[in-house]
């Protein structure tokens, strides 16, 4: 009897824990979906001029329309595009009409077009502000000689280009750059695996209950035989 009770407690207790983890992931899913919806609303809002003061905490994803001059001295950030292959994000200095210097992520160029000559000069750029968190302790230092960066580090890129630490990721530009395709800001890269996690926990709970029932029935059968 004690052993049967023990199996029952373990079976129900373990299933309860696994089910609670599943519901926790469902709650996390709703939380993440709300965040993504808010970011999407910010991305697609009506573009405005760059504010006088800009802060990553309040202005991330802010849609901007900027008139100025696209400068020379690009930074090339190594990336890979699905179904396309390796290439580079083209980061260029951009002087606004008020004199401020910021950076523009002009888009993606294939590796073969890394050092191609690109048009510079007056431009109107529409895009979104972004401070991507792409660096960690394993990110290699940029290869300055080859002009190859391995992540968009806004502060480091701004120091290199002598601009403000402000990155405008272009959605469109009046200044055409052949071979460069825009990589606008979106939420596709924001991880949202909570539904899969919830399904995993609920599946484990079902398996746990099934195994517990199996052992209880097996014990009941052994008692009948004895």
UniProtKB/TrEMBL annotation:
<dbReference type="InterPro" id="IPR002994">
    <property type="entry name" value="Surf1/Shy1"/>
</dbReference>
<dbReference type="InterPro" id="IPR045214">
    <property type="entry name" value="Surf1/Surf4"/>
</dbReference>
<feature type="transmembrane region" description="Helical">
    <location>
        <begin position="195"/>
        <end position="216"/>
    </location>
</feature>
<comment type="similarity">
    <text>Belongs to the SURF1 family.</text>
</comment>
<keyword id="KW-1003">Cell membrane</keyword>
<keyword id="KW-1133">Transmembrane helix</keyword>
<dbReference type="Pfam" id="PF02104">
    <property type="entry name" value="SURF1"/>
</dbReference>
<keyword id="KW-0812">Transmembrane</keyword>
<dbReference type="GO" id="GO:0005886">
    <property type="term" value="C:plasma membrane"/>
</dbReference>
<keyword id="KW-0472">Membrane</keyword>
<protein>
    <recommendedName>
        <fullName>SURF1-like protein</fullName>
    </recommendedName>
</protein>
């Amino acid at each position: 009897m004690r052993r049967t009770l023990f199996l029952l407690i373990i079976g129900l207790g373990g299933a309860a824990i696994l089910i609670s983890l599943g519901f926790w992931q469902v709650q996390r899913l709703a939380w993440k979906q709300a965040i993504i919806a808010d970011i999407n609303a910010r991305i697609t809002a009506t573009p405005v001029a760059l504010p006088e003061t800009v802060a990553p905490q309040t202005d991330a994803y802010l849609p901007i329309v900027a008139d100025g001059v696209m400068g020379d001295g690009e930074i090339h950030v190594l990336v890979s595009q699905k179904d396309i292959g390796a290439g580079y994000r083209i980061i260029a200095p951009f002087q606004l009409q008020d004199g401020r210097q910021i950076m523009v992520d002009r888009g993606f160029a294939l590796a073969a077009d890394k050092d191609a000559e690109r048009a510079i000069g007056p431009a109107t750029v529409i895009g979104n502000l972004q401070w991507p968190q792409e660096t960690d302790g394993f990110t290699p230092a940029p290869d300055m000689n080859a002009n190859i960066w391995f992540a968009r580090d806004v502060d480091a890129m701004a120091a290199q280009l002598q601009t403000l630490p402000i990155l405008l990721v272009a959605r469109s530009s009046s200044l055409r750059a052949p071979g460069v395709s825009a990589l606008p800001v979106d939420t596709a890269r924001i991880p949202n695996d909570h539904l899969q996690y919830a399904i995993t926990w609920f599946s484990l709970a079902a398996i746990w209950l099934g195994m517990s029932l199996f052992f209880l029935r097996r014990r009941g059968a052994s008692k009948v035989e004895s």
